[in-house]
Design brief:
The protein folds into two domains: 191 residues, 3-Layer(bba) Sandwich (FAD/NAD(P)-binding domain), CATH 3.50.50.60; 154 residues, D-Amino Acid Oxidase, Chain A, domain 2, CATH 3.30.9.10. The chain has eleven helices and 20 strands.
Length: 420
């Protein structure tokens, strides 16, 4: 926001806007306003535009500048914690394969979708037992995989240490480039008439006084007042701050993750490789630092190393070098050849986590015209495509489809309020 005048920059940190700015804002209308242009918000905006609605996408910074621009883009099914979560992931898994083709045709942006498969590696018997229990459940859910012996593991990943107690291969898992995917979704939406407002923090969200948006809301930014029947809040860890404008307290917390980008290592990483202990870090409520190795390659030739989880402040996006060193050291224990490369950059992102580790998707009881799409934690990229479709079905159909039941925000509120 450096391009804004000082008086406007000051107002961004203030709960109210100067009268001169309030009076000069342009008044607009839209069928839907989506707040947040990360991959979840962009997916919602694209799906709504595709359904023929006039969509305005409002972003306080620029697309994919938050968690969506600081992650690996892995589309993995096996780390699903519940059957409901797995159903959403499977839907999204298939939808991403379709979107890769659709978005390339519409926008000429290649989102780098690749069905490379993933490996779950257990280095000791404790993790092996955990992996076997998880895979037994996945078998019941219809997820296809195969156990690899030492020879099979060596053939799958020659650079990986072969001394695993257990290794499972999931051939359907895939990967996208989340920054390109977000950009493609936004461009495809714009080609359908979607309007995007970059660098426009939301300052107000209230019942609309506009007759053209009867029963709806008005979204206020520095430059615009947008009257709309529907608002979708997909602002990641910023969602609670937006809902505070309505007097609603949403229990979404920030869980920071860091990634190291390695270049020059004389090894090939063919699949998405994760240690089995990753499942524990995903499901844990521990507020302290947790690290579990996740390694994957990119088309650019670099290798991405993760992952870490740490509960933190929603404004804390700083890279911690000690955490970064621990991520790299742990990954070298799986791929010794990584030690011959160099870390060329690193980044940190904030995952929005709900108390029960399930996404929060659907209308809030206090304002049923306000739809939430947040709380995906580390599954935001994985579940974004299906989340967008669910939100579009809700708004176009006027009621929540059954697929939404496990994710509805009402589970965090004692009472409900009738729809407008």
């Amino acid at each position: 926001m450096d391009e804004l005048p000082d008086r406007v920059q000051a107002s961004v940190r203030s709960p109210s806007l100067p009268v001169s700015i309030r009076d000069s804002r342009e008044r607009l209308t839209a069928d839907v306003v989506v707040i947040g242009a990360g991959i979840v918000g962009a997916s919602c905006a694209y799906a709504l535009s595709r359904a023929g609605l006039e969509v305005h996408l409002v972003e306080r910074d620029a697309p994919a500048r938050g968690a969506s621009g600081a992650c690996e883009g892995h589309l993995i099914l096996w780390d699903s914690p519940t059957s409901a979560d797995l159903r959403l992931r499977r839907w999204s898994h298939q939808r991403w394969a379709e979107l890769a083709v659709e978005l390339l045709a519409e926008t000429r942006i290649d989102i780098e979708y690749e069905r490379k498969g993933s490996l779950m590696i257990a280095r000791d018997e404790e993790d092996a037992e955990c992996a076997r229990d998880k895979c037994a459940w996945l078998t019941e859910e219809g997820i296809r995989f195969e156990w690899l012996d030492e020879v099979g593991l060596r053939e799958a990943e020659p650079a990986l240490r072969p001394d695993a107690a257990a290794a499972a291969y999931f051939p359907a898992d895939a990967q996208i480039e989340p920054r390109l995917a977000t950009a493609a979704l936004v461009r495809a939406g714009r080609l359908r008439g979607m309007v995007i407002h970059n660098h426009e923090p939301v300052f107000s969200l209230a019942a609309s006084e506009s007759s053209s948006a009867e029963g709806g809301m008005t979204v206020g930014t520095l430059r615009h007042l947008i009257a709309t029947p529907w608002v979708v809040v997909a602002a990641g860890v910023g969602t609670p701050g937006v809902l505070e404008l309505l007097g609603v307290d949403l229990p979404v917390t920030a869980r920071k993750g860091q990634i190291a980008v390695v270049a020059g290592a004389p090894i090939e990483v063919r699949h998405i490789v994760s240690e089995a202990g990753y499942m524990r870090t995903v499901a844990s409520d521990d507020t302290q630092l947790q690290i579990a190795t996740v390694v994957g390659s990119t088309r650019a030739g670099t290798i991405l190393l993760g992952s870490s989880r740490l509960m933190t402040d929603p404004d804390d996006r700083d890279v911690d070098l000690d955490v970064l060193n621990r991520i790299v050291s742990r990954a070298v224990g799986f791929f010794p050849g990584l030690a011959l490369g160099r870390v060329v950059r690193s980044y940190a992102g904030l995952r929005p986590m709900s108390p029960d580790h399930r996404p929060i998707v659907g209308p809030i009881p206090a304002a049923p015209r306000v739809i939430l799409a947040t709380g995906h934690e580390g599954g935001g990229v994985m579940m974004a495509a299906a989340t967008g479709d669910l939100v579009a079905r809700l708004i176009v159909g006027g009621k929540a489809p059954g697929d939404l039941d496990p994710f509805l925000p009402g589970r965090f509120f004692a009472t409900t309020v009738a729809s407008h």
